[in-house]
Amino acid sequence: MIKAPYIYYKEKQLMMEEVRVEDIIKETGTPTYLYSKGSLLNQLKQLKEAFGNTKLLICYSMKVCHNINIANVFVENGCGVDIVSGGELYRAIKAGADPKKIVYSGVAKTEKEIREAIEADILMFNVESEQELTRINNIAASKNKKVSISLRINPGVDAKTHPYITTGMKENKFGIDSEMGVNIYKKAMQMEHVEVIGIDLHIGSQLLDVAPYGEAMKIVADYVRQLRSMNIPIQYVDIGGGIGIPYKEEQASPDLNEYARLITEPFQDMPDITFVLEPGRFLVAQAGLLITEVQYIKDNSYDKRFVIIDSGMHHLIRPSLYQSYHNIIPVIQKEKSMNTVDVVGPICESTDFLAKDRQMEEVTQGDLLAVTDAGAYGIVMSSHYNSHSRPVEVLVEENDYKIIRRRETYEDLLSGEII
Ligand SMILES: Cc1ncc(COP(=O)(O)O)c(C=O)c1O
Ligand SMILES: N[C@@H](CCCC[NH3+])C(=O)O
C-alpha cells in the first residue's frame, strides 16, 4: 500500500501527481529523485492548520533536501528556513528566503559562518554553547551590530526514536544543559552585542508518538517563566523539527492536532509568544521517490536472491546507517509472484543495500523500481563514493515536471580537483 499522497497507480503505471513516472525516466534516465510539489504543499497545509491562529513561523529545515527549488516551494508559501551552515545560508538566500525568517542552528558554527549570517541579518542564532555565544558577541562587536539569539536548551527528554537520531538527551552533543542554561542566559544579558529573544530545543527526529513534546514543552514553559521573572525577554520558542512519517505499513501518521496542543497549551498564560517550528522530514519525505533500474538478478546457493540496482547507499544511506525501512515498488505493475530478495547497489561495501530479506513482486533485468518516502535525507546525504554520479532531481507539479538537478558528468566528478 502506498501511504504517500500524490503517488498512486493508474492502469498499472506508477504516477506522481498526473505524470507517469516512466515518462519522466524516459527523459532523465536512472537513478533519479522525483518530488511532488502537491505533496510538499499538502504537508505544509496540514501543519499550518493544526496550529490554527497560533503565532507561528515555520522554518523549513533545508538540511533534509537542500535543492533550492524545493526550499523555494516553502519560501514562496510564507516559510522561513532553518539552516545549519554557511552553505545552507547561501542556498536559503538563493532560494529567495527572507533573511528575517532564517534561524541558524548547529554546534560548530565557525567565525566565517557567523560573520556571514550577521551580514545577512538573519532572525536569530540558536546558540549551542557558551563559547559560541562569546564568539557571536565578539564578531557582532567588530561590526558594531546587535545580534538576536536564542539558547538551545537540552530538556533531557527521551524522544524514543532511533538512538542515532535522538538529540535532547543529556549525553547528546547538542544544546546547552538546562541546569547551566540560566547562567548562560544571564551572561548573554550582560553582553553588549547580543539581544536575547528566544529559547530553542530539538529533541530528536522521526517522532511518531508526539508525547515526548508534551513532556519537553512543560519543562520549557516553566523555564521560560523563570527566565521572564528574571527580566530575560523570551519572545520566541523554537521547538525544532522532529515530526515523523510512517515509513512502514503498520506505522500511523503522527497526530498533528495533538502535537500542536502539546506545544501551545503549556504557554497559555504567555499569549505574546511566537512559536517557531523547524520541520524537515514531515514536509518532504513522502513527496520523494528514488527511481532506479534493475541491472542484474543474482541467486546464490544459500537460497539468497539479490536484485542489483543502479543506486544504493551512495544515494540513499538511511537503510545502511539506521537500518531504516523504505518501501520499494515497481514503476510498472506486472502482478507477478512474490519473492524474498535483498535489493543491493553497486558500492563495494556489504552495507550497500536498500532492502534486506524483502518480500517483493518478482522483477527482471531492466525493470524500474521506486524507493518510496525518499524525499528527506536522501540526495543530501549522497556521495560520490566509488565515483558514481549523483541522481538527477525532478520536481513534479500537476501534469508537468521540471529537472531541478541535471545528471552529473564525469567532469563533474573531478570538479575542484587540481589537475
Ligand atoms: C536543529 C534541527 N532542526 C530541525 C531538524 C529537522 O528535523 P526533522 O527532519 O526531524 O523534522 C533537525 C534534524 O533533526 C535539527 O537538528
Ligand atoms: N538523517 C537522519 C535524521 C537525522 C536528523 C538530523 N538532525 C535520517 O535520515 O533519518
Mean pLDDT: 96
Distance between the ends: 50 Å
Count of the separate structural domains = 2
CATH top level label of the largest domain: Alpha Beta
Bound ligands: pyridoxal-5'-phosphate, lysine
Strand percentage lies at: 25-35%
Largest sheet: 9 strands, mixed
CATH-wise, what's the superfamily of the largest domain? Alanine racemase
Uncertain parts: none
Could you please say which CATH topology of the largest domain applies here?
TIM Barrel
Integer-rounded radius of gyration: 23 Å
Oligomer: single chain
Report helical residue fraction. 25-40%
| Structural class by SSE content | alpha/beta
So how many helices? 12
Short précis:
By secondary structure, this protein is α/β, with parallel strands linked by helices.
Description:
It contains 12 helices and 21 strands. The longest helix has 19 residues. Strand 7, helix 5 and strand 8 form a beta-alpha-beta unit. Strands 4, 14, 15, 16, 17, 18, 19, 20 and 21 form a 9-stranded mixed beta sheet that branches. Strands 5-6-7-8-9-11-12-13 form an 8-stranded parallel β-barrel, surrounded by 4 helices. The protein folds into 2 domains: 160 residues, Lyase, Ornithine Decarboxylase, Chain A, domain 1, CATH 2.40.37; 175 residues, Alanine racemase (TIM Barrel, Alpha-Beta Barrel), CATH 3.20.20.10. The mean pLDDT is 96. The protein has 419 residues and is an alpha/beta fold. Keywords: Amino-acid biosynthesis, Decarboxylase, Lyase, Lysine biosynthesis, Pyridoxal phosphate. It comes from Mobilitalea sibirica.
